[in-house]
Amino acid sequence: MAFNSLADFLTMGTHGAFVWSTYGLVLLILASLILNTVQGRRKVIRQLKKRYLRESDS
Amino acid sequence: MNWIWFHKLGSPKWFYQWSSKWALPVFSMGLLAMLVGVGWGLGFAPTDYQQGDTYRIIYLHVPAAVLAESCYLSLGVAGFVYLVWQMKMAPIFIKSMAPIGAAMAAIALLSGAIWGKPTWGTWWVWDARLTSVLVLFLLYMGIIALQNTLEDAALANQATAIVSVLGLINLPIIKYSVNWWNTLHQPASFSLTEKPAMPMEMWLPLLIAVIGFYCLVVGLVMWRMQSEILLRERRTQWVKEKVMNHGV
């Protein structure tokens, strides 16, 4: 570990707020991207299924 | 030379089946490598003698910036392939990759701004490097906007392919902006071809993080392409069977 204590790790020397807000922001962006990908796939499958069922009814 | 792979890649059905096997392993590998690289950089890499621990933002900033450029290069190649050979898979790729590239460019810009404040004393300057990366982000957004507004699919394919190719001109500008103009941004600190400008204990976790970001993006783009393939090939029998057998 490059830090002597947990407090050192959290404050990152002096600019902890900058470092940690970057990490939080990136986590948020990446999580939304992954979620959007998974949900997009589900949505397509749901829509197509509905469409096929409608077609086979008529 | 054997061109069979090129023809196979042009087949949505073949790509769907092939990527079904690879998307999850590649994505998981990416997450793991990111966790190792970024975690190592955040907690174990040595403190920088000039910037202290603030420099640890690099473990997100550089991978995202590298990916923002690589993703755009791939868009340009796909645009070219579409314009020359009208390959069906190319616009599917462009549509799937654009939002990922936009996210990477956004991460590079935001992490850069937050890093700039304590080290340069400002969030933003209109210099060559920062501005050209902002242009890169806007190119991605432009491609996404074209896809969302052009209802005619053939027109949307054509237009996004043209923008993708034209935007390539921005890539050398980004790369050499730190050498051609005076800028606050430092020259490249991460390179595979030259001796790195940082000690091994800092560089290795960065390399792992970059590889992790690459794998994550490849896994994500495969999944997004699969959704797009299902949508565009909905009138084929194989898609119908695939969807109807899927338990959603």
UniProtKB/TrEMBL annotation, chain A:
<keyword id="KW-1003">Cell membrane</keyword>
<feature type="transmembrane region" description="Helical">
    <location>
        <begin position="20"/>
        <end position="38"/>
    </location>
</feature>
<keyword id="KW-0997">Cell inner membrane</keyword>
<dbReference type="InterPro" id="IPR007078">
    <property type="entry name" value="Haem_export_protD_CcmD"/>
</dbReference>
<keyword id="KW-0472">Membrane</keyword>
<keyword id="KW-0813">Transport</keyword>
<comment type="similarity">
    <text>Belongs to the CcmD/CycX/HelD family.</text>
</comment>
<comment type="function">
    <text>Required for the export of heme to the periplasm for the biogenesis of c-type cytochromes.</text>
</comment>
<keyword id="KW-0201">Cytochrome c-type biogenesis</keyword>
<keyword id="KW-1133">Transmembrane helix</keyword>
<keyword id="KW-0812">Transmembrane</keyword>
<dbReference type="Pfam" id="PF04995">
    <property type="entry name" value="CcmD"/>
</dbReference>
<dbReference type="InterPro" id="IPR052075">
    <property type="entry name" value="Heme_exporter_D"/>
</dbReference>
<protein>
    <recommendedName>
        <fullName>Heme exporter protein D</fullName>
    </recommendedName>
</protein>
